[in-house]
Specification:
Layout lengths: L8 E5 L4 H12 L3 E6 L2 H10 L4 E4 L5 H9 L6 E4 L14 H29 L3 E6 L12 H21 L4 E8 L5 H7 L2 H10 L8 H12 L10 E4 L7
Parallel strand pairs: 1-2, 1-4, 2-3, 4-5, 5-6, 6-7
Helix pairs in contact: 1-8, 3-4, 4-5
Bound molecules: NADPH dihydro-nicotinamide-adenine-dinucleotide phosphate (NDP).
Protein name: L-xylulose reductase
Keywords: NADP, Oxidoreductase
Subunit structure: Homotetramer.
Length: 244
């Protein structure tokens, strides 16, 4: 994608696999000094082997204090993508405390934690910045068997709006990206069974799921100056499946 981020410093969470992994590579290729954060060192080592310019941070986002310290140590960040998330497959009646706690710790609380540290620096420097929160079609549409995940993404939708209201005066833009199914490790966990994926595909006007690159392109656009007046938006990368 022909978008450059030279002179900017970018942080991507959940960059050890899937969308975050490719996003970190794309941002680095676009000239950003890129920090890839995840919790499995082997994944980060692999990313670093592919692009030695990428700097890696190994921390569990569910650990508030360790995460805060790790992000504070990075110095100025101009572009942030809160991409990491976990997904537990249960019914609503099966949700246990550990599941809902872990889901909200990683998918919501960590977004608050990391964004506070990054936004604090953006405010102090007075030059604005861009944040993308990775939501999902599940932030707007109730998907079966992932109740805590959908609730967490619904929380992200509103979190983005309140962040926009408060931080816009500092020229900090915050937007959501809402992908449909992408066959990453997370996507396969939920959609590998054709009995589930085929009806979903049939309901999708374009009759296909998203590729990682489709999501990466949407994020890159929202991080770039080309989307300068887009703030508090949710950009659906879903082939029209949520169109009503
Ligand atoms: P993956 O499961 O493929 O990758 C998620 C990454 O986040 C992994 O590197 C994982 O590390 C990391 N991560 C998870 N928990 C933590 C944690 N506690 N601390 C640090 N890192 C963590 O997911 P995707 O790439 O598919 O998803 C990326 C984003 O896109 C998510 O926000 C997801 O909700 C969203 N999305 C995905 C869709 C899909 O169909 N794939 C559809 C809609 C939205 P590790 O593996 O070591 O746990």
């Amino acid at each position: 994608m022909d978008i450059r981020f030279d002179g900017r410093r970018a942080l991507v969470t959940g960059a050890g696999k899937g969308i975050g992994y490719e996003l970190a590579k794309a941002l680095a290729a676009g000239g950003a000094e890129t920090f890839a954060l995840s919790r499995t060192q082997a994944d980060l080592d692999q990313l670093k082997a592919e692009n030695p310019d990428i700097r890696t941070v190994c921390v569990d986002l569910a650990d508030w204090a360790a995460t805060r310290k790790a992000v504070e140590e990075l110095g100025p960040i101009h572009l942030l993508v809160n991409n990491a998330a976990v997904l537990h497959c249960t019914t609503f009646m099966e949700i246990e405390e550990a599941e809902i706690k872990n889901t909200f710790d990683v998918n919501v609380h960590a977004v608050v934690n990391v964004s506070q540290v990054v936004a604090q620096g953006m405010i102090a420097r007075g030059k604005g910045g861009a944040i993308v929160n990775m939501s999902s079609i599940g932030g707007r549409v109730a998907l079966e068997n992932v109740p805590s995940y959908c609730a967490s993404k619904g929380a992200i939708e509103m979190l983005t709006k309140v962040m926009t209201r408060e931080l816009g005066q500092h020229q900090i833009r915050i937007n959501n990206v809402n992908p449909t199914v992408v066959m990453t490790a997370m996507g396969k966990k939920l959609w590998s069974d054709p009995a589930k994926s085929e009806p979903m595909m049939k309901r999708t006007p374009q009759r296909k799921f998203a590729e990682v690159k489709d999501v990466v392109h949407a994020v890159m656009f929202l991080l770039s100056d080309q989307s300068d007046m887009i703030n508090g938006a949710s950009l659906f990368v879903d082939g029209g499946v949520t169109a009503v």
